Amino acid sequence: MTYSSRRQRLVLAGTVGMLLVAAWPAAAQQPAPLPPGSPLIGRPDTADAKKLAPVPAPPVAAAPDKLPVDKLKAAKGFKVEVYASGMPNARSLALGDKGTVFVGSRLLDKVYAIVDKGGKREVKVVASGLYRPNGVAFKNGTLYIAELSQISKIEGIEDKLDNPPKPTVILDGLPKDEAHGWKYLAIGPDNKLYFEIGQPCNNCLPAEGYGTMRRVNLDGSGMETIAQGIRHTVGFDWHPVSKEMYFTDNSRDWMSEDLPNDELNRMTKVGQHFGSPFCYQGDLPDQEFGWGRKCSEFTPPIALMGPHAAALGMKFYTGNSFPAKYKNQILVARHGSWNKTNKIGGDVVLVNIKKDGSAGPMEPFLTGFLENNAYVGRPVDVLVMKDGSVLVSDDWNGAVWRVSAGNGRTASR
Amino acid sequence: MRSLAVGAILAGLAAQSVCAQPLDARLPTCFACHGENGISQLPEIPSLGAQPTFYTTVQLLMFRDKLRVTEPMNEMAKGLTDAELQKAADIISKLPPPVPVSDTPAAARMEKARALSQQHRCNFCHQANYAGQENVPRLAGQREDYLLKALRGYKDNSRRGYDAQMSEVVYDLKDEDFVELAYFLARQK
What we know:
Number of helices of chain B: 10
Shape of chain B: globular
Mean pLDDT of chain A: 89
Strand content of chain A: 35-45%
CATH topology of chain A: Neuraminidase
CATH architecture of chain A: 6 Propeller
Helix content of chain A: under 10%
Radius of gyration of chain B: 16 Å
Order of helices and strands of chain B: HHHHHHHHHH
Low-confidence stretches of chain B: none
CATH class of chain A: Mainly Beta
Distance between the termini of chain A: 32 Å
Oligomer: heterodimer
Largest sheet of chain A: 5 strands, antiparallel
Radius of gyration of chain A: 21 Å
CATH superfamily of chain A: TolB, C-terminal domain
Largest interface: A-B, 39 and 40 residues
CATH topology of the largest domain in chain B: Cytochrome Bc1 Complex, Chain D, domain 2
CATH superfamily of the largest domain in chain B: Cytochrome c-like domain
Strand content of chain B: under 5%
Distance between the termini of chain B: 27 Å
Low-confidence stretches of chain A: 1-45
CATH architecture of the largest domain in chain B: Orthogonal Bundle
């Protein structure tokens, strides 16, 4: 299949300028009036705004010779190369004890394994027929998979890669809502599985239990809710020293081109509320649900990740082959925006984490996925390898990139 | 009525073992249900003409790989190559658009639905003329009963989308809204 024509059209769409809010088309179509006080009054209805639509990834992987390796740029002193390809919709990453890299998918039904045999990498399908198996985690020989509404496991997976058994369900009955229902999965320092029940909407007051971070034991028992007010997190990790949980959160769409920002959050205790849908980015009451509430009621983010930027997977850098300044800092994959005329994101950024656990400045680490306002790739998750290199998954190309210390092209904003 | 008609066609399909055939041999069976020139005469079976190629390719792939479960379509798409999916989508995109319902629409219903469409930005992704784009399907002139079925399916999670966008959109829409939207869209040129 070829998608070149649609990509060209995306490029064309992107060159159209920003003329939002200029022309509220009062006389254009004689629409029925909205109810008084509707938050929807004043929403941009111009031709340019109407070009905004989610950017779906192709359901096939890019051919190896079509991967945009020449377009990607790593930070100074690093190089980027293809680690493995041919995994349609490659999403979250997890590392096995024996070096196998597991890769989930969201739009398709498969979990892949990348096996490194003396530098030559082989891709295998280790599970299929799953429903939105976005989340993968690994502990003591066992692969854990988070689908839309259940979590399952395959024990001893690295010894059975060519003939894996079907996953065994350890937790089911989670909500089946599609909107923000796909899950990131990770195992905390307490040896529990962490995942979120996302908000089933763009911006709403959902029923009890949505927008919450949960954790269960490795056998699926003992579910606890440990935080709320999270719209949809698709990436989290724990500080290597303080053991505090840090997570990204995707803020709402359609408020404006440049607000609200996505968030990087830090959980310092159980029971915190991170604002959604009442307050976004720590200081911006929602137009609809912010009335009668104050942003000071909620735990603010420690860093703003850009409006609509889709900050997804993140990891603390715990390897030894990068310069010292990277140690215990966070690498965040920004999938890139769709709900914004001039796209942003489509990169991996380094967020400086200070000794007190707060965030300092952010700088580019891997760029080039966004070209002329169209995507040539979209980073999803980050994984630190035992040799200190960093892998980055890309669901647009169905590939995983490897960034290592060494000479390469320089990243730019 | 629909199940009888589709059942009869499927029985014929099985007899011909259409699923082992290349795309060209299967096409007449497609139009047996979806209608001559892709203009469906059967309840809850969509018309096909002028659909964006990307959307149709993805839906056919989802049928083939059982990511979207609708039995006749899973059978019909079984074993097709990626290139055949793309070719089918190209053929469909070039068929004439479906003919909208040509009665005199109830003005109040049309206005109510137009407002709903604007509030929920149907007219953004599906475009102002509802011709669709990329992975967003054409709605203009589609069968009213099929539009209603699709919207209800997104609401109760029985219709699996490629991504979750429609589930997000229908979150705060009610069944009575679906009825009005389907009425309105079936009457768009």
